[in-house]
Amino acid sequence: MTATFSFDLKATDGKARTGVINTPRGDIRTPAFMPVGTAATVKAMMPESVAATGADILLGNTYHLMLRPTAERIDRLGGLHQFMNWDKPILTDSGGFQVMSLSDLRKLTEEGVTFKSHIDGSRHHLTPERSMEIQKLLGSDIVMCFDECPALPADRKRIQESMELSMRWAQRSRDAFGDRPGHALFGIQQGGLEEDLRGRSAEALRAIEFDGYAVGGLAVGEGQEAMFKVLDFAPDQLPVDKPRYLMGVGKPDDIVGAVKRGIDMMDCVLPSRSGRTGQAFTRRGVVNIKNARHADDPRPLDAECTCPACSNYSRAYLHHVFRAQEMISGMLLTWHNLHYFQEIMAGMRTAIAAGAFADWEADFHAGRAKGDI
Ligand SMILES: O=c1[nH]cnc2cc3nc(NCCN4CCOCC4)[nH]c3cc12
Q1: 236, 262 in Cβ contact below 8 A?
Q2: Are the CB atoms for 112 and 128 separated by under 8 Å?
Q3: How deeply is 3 buried, as exposed, middle or buried, from its count of CB atoms within 10 A (0-12, 13-18, 19+)?
Q4: Which residues line ligand 1 (CB under 6 A)?
Q5: What pLDDT, in 10s, does the model give residues 158-211?
Q6: What is the predicted ipTM?
Q7: Cα torsion 287, 290, 292, 294: sign
Q8: Among 18, 182, 257, 325, whose Cα sits 20 to 30 Å from the Cα of 26?
Q9: Pairing mode of beta strands 244-246, 212-215
């Protein structure tokens, strides 16, 4: 814990890196996975349970919080950390991505985006300046630039124009963010799957100077192979001494592949959203607990897992509470999935520090069954 924001790169193994991001609200061990706390809660989890899984930081969504309960109300109540009883670091996204994926009647101009709330149809306006103001009111420790993430597939002209708009918005975000010691502002690289456009985006962001750099524009339907092809060059286009954050990723094997290619931070709704639907991620693959074949199975989800779901309950019990639509079902499976994702991150941090990432990765992939187990 320090008064300022800094990144301490501790070891590398190939392109994989491990380190610590120091912030006034606590240290973040990298590579780090951020659970998503969309509307000021990681769904089905108490904050102390999220901390117990090993998470050092969580993500809050500007789009949801600006609509309900509004950033001004959260500010009046002491900020997002106090509001949701989470005293460790919080990263908030800028709202732009979710405006385009969740709201209605959006209008995008040079100024920003105008849209109607998916909750009550009220009209709202988001600009780089307003996004910085909202994230400041929330009190987040890591603020994301306001950008535009084009849906793929898209032609090169569209990708280029969108990237250039995002770079103008990155400058406006930087100017509006101002000087906030202990708080960080991250830029977001765009450029689709094009190496030259991503290189231009990285150069533009370097010139503006940020505390960290996100690889944006991915996990938008391009598929793992295309994403990894971009990750084979994009992280190296970004400053080596700053955290690199891949947005919206992902499944366990996406996460391992991204860390292997030099990514330090990731976030995804997958472990929590899947937990609520009965999909459990384990070291041997995916278990769909609602499947009838688990109804009489006395074994735990994963005998090697130490989470509460695997320590205290059988597959039969988890199957039952999902079939009965009991609230504990989503709680237990979300806890398991977040625990497992943090175990993957901790395993990679240790392996990279020991120069043994390749062995760890081979063990991770060995024995993973395809489909339900
Ligand atoms: O360029 C971006 N800029 C700002 N925010 C983003 C968020 C992003 N989130 C994803 N992918 C999320 C994919 N999820 C997978 C699980 O199911 C929900 C969607 N890609 C993203 C790209 C960006």
Answers
A1: yes
A2: yes
A3: exposed
A4: 93, 97, 147, 149, 188, 216-220, 247-248, 268-270
A5: 999 999 999 999 999 999 999 999 999 999 999 999 999 999 999 999 999 999
A6: 0.98
A7: positive
A8: 257
A9: parallel
